[in-house]
Amino acid sequence: MVSEYRLRRRVQFYETDAAGIVHFSWFFRYMEEAEHALWREAGLSIAPIVADVGWPRVAASFDFHRPLRFEDEFDVLIRVAAISEKTMRYVCLITQGAAKIATGTMTIACVSKGNEPLRAVSIPADIVSRFQAVAEGSERP
Question: CB–CB of 100/33 below 8 Å?
Fold first, then answer.
């Protein structure tokens, strides 16, 4: 079972704003990129070509502590914080060396694809069995 994944990245020029720092919207992309890597580590894809379920984001937030700039190298640590019948919640820590850059959370819901409006459904057993939540208050993030 997979609980967390660490992704190493470098800031690209197009991710920065006029002030020369990473635009806030990119932090959500970094978290999502790490999430997809977490799913691959579990032997899955969050968006396979043929799938009965989808995973919309129902909540996402970030707190920013320090800026990142062009060509900075940094790590994105994503951890499964909670799994319920129909949702998964992640916590995310973005660091540059020992410096905390940003902390975030994201909750995804399992929905049945092809039904309008979207309807939350139970996470399939073959998916939920690949992940393990780590209790809040554990070392990091």
Answer: no
Partners of 54 in the β-ladder: 111
* H/E element, 5: strand 4-10
pLDDT of 140 > 60? The answer is no
Residue pLDDT, tens place only, 31-69: 999 999 999 999 999 999 888 999 999 999 999 999 999
Q: Are 39 and 51 in contact (CB under 8 A)?
A: no
Tell me what pLDDT residue 42 has.
Answer: 98
What are the C-alpha distances in Å from 99 to residues 3, 25, 55, 94, 132? Answer: 23, 20, 31, 9, 27
Q: How many CB atoms lie within 10 A of CB 91?
A: 21
- Distance in angstroms (rounded) separating the CA atoms of residues 91 and 102: 11
